[in-house]
Amino acid sequence: MRLNIKQSKFTKTTKPRYDIKFHKPKTKKLIRKPKYPKNFPKESIRNKYLKVIKCPDISESSFKKIISKNTLVFRVNPKANKIEIKHALKKLYKAKILKINTLITLKGNKKAFIKLSQDCDALDVANKNGFL
Questions:
Q1: CA neighbor of 69 nearest in space, from 112, 116, 101
Q2: Is 70 exceeded by the pLDDT of residue 5?
Q3: Do the beta carbons of residue 68 and residue 116 sit within 8 Å?
Q4: What is the model's pTM?
Q5: Is the pLDDT confidence value at 1 over 60?
Q6: Distance between CA 80 and CA 58 in Å, rounded?
Q7: Region for 128 from its dihedrals, namely left if φ exceeds 0, alpha if ψ lies in -120 to 50, beta otherwise
Q8: CB–CB of 78/53 below 8 Å?
């Protein structure tokens, strides 16, 4: 026995697909078991501060500043800011700092002029640390 089913006038046509999309199936995520630690031991604190302060500036003009204005002159990392310089000097030389002025020279080096407090003499700090 055959059923009579009406067919509609409109037949569904599919659009041609021009882009290919492949959906990657979800896979099981395993817990990592590393053979060695990902984070290596941190460098010593002294090395961290020595990256900020390169060396003291040894010139006649810097000696005049040490004697007359109680100011030390250092060459520092060009990317270091005043706060990092101040923190490094406090840790390395144990000096009380009033203010820091910085400038970038024509060669691209950065100089820091460190004004010390009156109770902390710049000449003593320079002699104690051996850059005079």
A1: 116
A2: no
A3: no
A4: 0.66
A5: no
A6: 20
A7: alpha
A8: no
CA triplet 64, 70, 76: central angle to 5 degrees?
80
How confident is the model at residue 13, as a pLDDT? 77
DSSP-derived 3-state class of residue 56: strand
The 110-116 sheet, strands edge to edge: 53-56, 71-76, 110-116, 97-104
Q: Around Cβ 69, how many Cβ atoms within 10 Å? A: 12
Q: Decide if 100 contacts 115 (C-beta within 8 A).
A: yes
57 vs 44, more confident: 57
CA distance 47 to 50: 5
Confidence of residue 122 (pLDDT cuts 50, 70, 90): very high
Query: By C-alpha distance, which of 116, 72, 84 is closest to 97?
Result: 116
Q: Note the pLDDT of residue 4.
A: 61
Pull the structure tokens for residue 103: 């400038």
Helices 45-52 & 82-93 angle (0-180, nearest 10): 130
The answer to whether 82 and 100 are in contact (CB under 8 A) is: yes
Instruction: Specify the residue for token string 């509609």.
Output: 8
